[in-house]
Amino acid sequence: MPKQVIHISAKVDAPIDKVWEHYNNPESIKQWNHASDDWHCPSSSNDLRVGGKFKNRMEAKDGSFGFDFEGEYLDIIPLQKISYKMTDDRKVDMSFHEENGYTLILIDFEAEEMNPIDMQKEGWQAILNNFKVFVEQQP
Fold it and tell me: Please, which residues bridge with residue 98 across strands?
């Protein structure tokens, strides 16, 4: 049975090259990659190439829970597209579109079966919203 695909998006007030750099730079990822203020991303590694892997550590700040969000890149078109497969074989497709100085990010990801669809969508959207705020605050 095919997995349900969830769609999220954000319009970032920044040029596409700045958005691409902050989305893929491990030092930047550690600053924005969390769904709420009681979580953080203490480590990140990113080998941005087809066949390359990424690994971002997500942890509750109180130390009560943590996990590695990781996967392998399937397709990359610089400044346009990233596709990857997570360790549980779910796929994610992202596209980046520059429009009048803004960058539109569209993300489609396959849902997992443990948590409600709304909860997954809200969590991923919260992380993307944190990314938007982070990039827009950078000089």
Answer: 103
Q: Structural domain of residue 43, as residue ranges? A: 5-137
126 close to 4: Cβ distance less than 8 angstroms: no
| φ/ψ bin of 128: left (φ > 0), alpha (ψ from -120 to 50), beta (otherwise) | alpha
For residue 84, what is the domain's CATH number? Answer: 3.30.530.20
pLDDT in tens, 45-90: 999 999 999 999 999 999 999 999 999 999 999 999 999 999 999 9
Q: How many domains does the chain have?
A: 1
Distance (Å, whole) CA 46 – CA 65: 23
- The sign of the CA dihedral 12, 16, 21, 23 is positive
Residues near 18 by beta carbon (within 8 Å), at least 6 away in sequence: 103, 135, 138
